[in-house]
Amino acid sequence: MPAVSQTTQTSPAPLSLLVLGQDSDPHSERGVECPGDLPEPSDPGLVARARAAKEALGDRVFVLGHHYQRDEVIEFTDTTGDSFKLAKEAAARPDAPYIVFCGVHFMAESADVLTSDEQTVVLPDLAAGCSMADMAALHQVEDCWDDLVEAGVAESTIPVTYMNSSAAIKAFTGRNGGTVCTSSNAERALTWAFDQVGGVEGEGKVLFLPDQHLGRNTWARDLGRDLEDCVVWNPHLPMGGLTLEEIRDARMILWRGHCSVHGRFTPEAVETARREIPGVRVIVHPECRNEVVALADEVGSTEKIIRAVSSAPAGTKWVVGTELNLVQRLAKEHPEQQISFLEKNVCYCSTMNRIDLPHLVWALESLVEGRVVNPIVVDETVAEQARTALDRMLALPGERSTD
Ligand code: SF4
Q: Sheet containing 79-81: which strands, arranged edge to edge?
């Protein structure tokens, strides 16, 4: 029998290219089906219909909106926030049987994990996924872990996953001794993870999923460590495209994932802003590339960006590198400040924007009629293991006092 080449043995599963809203993809965190008749976007009565449906539902519904949602949706939310703040707020409302989550799929999953069995989480458009979360499929991460076991380093490696990952990846992290982090607490989560394997100064490792940029920025900027300690694991290559020596020498094994919005901001845009707006303060999200983060004045989560802009003296000039819906809203709400968007070639997050007023009206009116559309239900075992990872995050020093 002819020898099978290594490439043939380890060639990755073909990537499924699904048209959003059609068919199903069990390896993806995306929801992909959107049944039912949606109101026409041109319906002039949409605002009145949304108002009437919310009024009819009263306290039975709690509508959450991520900062990256459209204004037309934010208008009907009961609270806004980043993904973790919203999941915690959902958990703090056990009296509301319906949680309508205006955000993306992984956020609604986290809300389902953290709320009671009596509550139902609804995502108004199941095609609202997240390209970053989709870059780490469970079978790929399990293959990676098997390779780390074979390389003899799994025992000294702690997996840490960003909130922006599927419940299945959070569960993987939970059952392998790891935790979840957000863009607000990544430094504390990494410090905790390294403490489990000998400390930041030691020789242990972190497998950071799925956003390589948040992992790299936290290691280099927040922990003041060397960029050369980081390697990138490419799930489409045998052994992540790394040599055994590279794996053994690394301290941070970064999954090759990124945000398709924040990954597009460039150092040139920061330089242009500084040239064109004298005295400008540049603030960016840590999902941006390290070269961009290194040039910024401030780096932080959406909550931190909002706080920084809101509390700055009137007349401060800002250039902001995060999703456009939030930057436009900040500019509208703070006319006393001069606020610009960092990069003219970067557009809205297309999946966040899938939640629009017609989908929200459809979800709310269906609930009024007693029909639950697009419920997000995480498998019980997966939910339990994901909760283990989330609980470890909640137990991080100082976690409960922050958003
Ligand atoms: S902005 Fe980036 S990380 Fe957030 S939902 Fe969109 S693709 Fe995902």
A: 79-81, 61-66, 98-102, 120-122
pLDDT value of position 401: 36
| Model pLDDT for residues 154-197, shown as the tens digit of each residue | 999 999 999 999 999 999 999 999 999 999 999 999 999 999 99
The number of the ligand 1 atom at minimal distance from the alpha carbon of 259 is: 2
Residue type, 254: L
- Cβ atoms 230, 215 nearer than 8 A: yes
How close is the Cα of 286 to the center of ligand 1, in Å?
12
Q: How far is the CA of 130 from the centre of ligand 1 (A)?
A: 5
With contact defined as beta carbons under 8 Å apart, do 321 and 298 qualify? no
Q: Which domain holds residue 299?
A: 262-341
Altogether, the residues listed in the chain come to a count of: 403
247 and 306 together in one domain: no
Q: Relative to the CA of 350, which ligand 1 atom is closest? A: 6
Q: Tens digit of pLDDT for each residue in 203-250?
A: 999 999 999 999 999 999 999 999 999 999 999 999 999 999 999 999
Q: Give Cα 333 distance to the centre of its chain.
A: 25
Q: CA–CA separation, 86 vs 102, rounded Å?
A: 10
Atom of ligand 1 nearest to the CA of 130: 8
Q: Are residues 313 and 368 in the same domain?
A: no
Mutate to test the pocket of ligand 1, among 262, 284, 285, 327 (most ligand atoms within 8 A of CB): 262
Of 64-68, 125-129, 216-220, 269-273, minimum mean pLDDT range: 125-129
Q: Name the residue with tokens 């300690």.
A: 229
CB of 130 shorter than 6 A to ligand 1: yes
Distance CA 285, CA 282 (A): 10
Compute CA distances 147 → 136, 234, 240, 242, 246, whole Å.
16, 12, 9, 11, 13
Considering the domain architecture, whether residues 137 and 119 belong to the same structural domain is answered as: no
Find out whether 326 and 302 touch, Cβ atoms under 8 Å: yes
CA of 164 to the centre of ligand 1 (A): 8
Task: Give CA–CA dist 245/256, Å, rounded.
Answer: 19
80 within a domain of the structure (yes/no): yes
| pTM of the model as a whole | 0.90
